[in-house]
Give the backbone structure.
Amino acid sequence: MLAQSAAAQLQIPQPVGYVNDFANVIPAEQEQRIQAIIDEVRTKSGGEIVVVTLPSLERRPASEVALQIGREWRIGQKGEAGDSARNTGAVLLVAPTDREWRIETGLGTNAFITAAEAGRIGRELMVPRFQTGDYGNGILLGVAGLAQQYSQRFGFQMTGDVPAAPQQQQPATGSRGRSSGGRALII
């Protein structure tokens, strides 16, 4: 019962597009690059990647908030039954104040972006930038990592300005993150 009342307390803003920076942490240059990648994935696969930053999750789990966003905004729900692009949405949620992130995938997406893969994208591509306060580039790299998964699944090449994923590095001394699937705290 407590979880239901907490769920009712957080009002998710209406979407303003595919990049919804309600926490104001994505600089304009990165926002344009993120949008271009999302547009290319949408055009070539029908899949939808939606970025949402919120100032706070108001003590709600990131998994619940990302799922709520996906359902309320109907992300990735286009397509007829049997269509391989149906339910191929992904929500990339970041709450900088709460130091949390989540990649939530739709039913059609979780076949090629598993919880383990979403966690890897977050831990290796996003969190190192978040730890230095560079949310724009962290989100850009996260979206690029998701786009790579869409391109592999639907058999297309990304042709736009997509940053290359950095080589896997050992975490810097003192940096750590706890992960559960597609979410971690930014510590």
Remarks:
- The first helix runs from residue 2 to 9.
- Residues 167-181 have pLDDT under 50 and may be disordered.
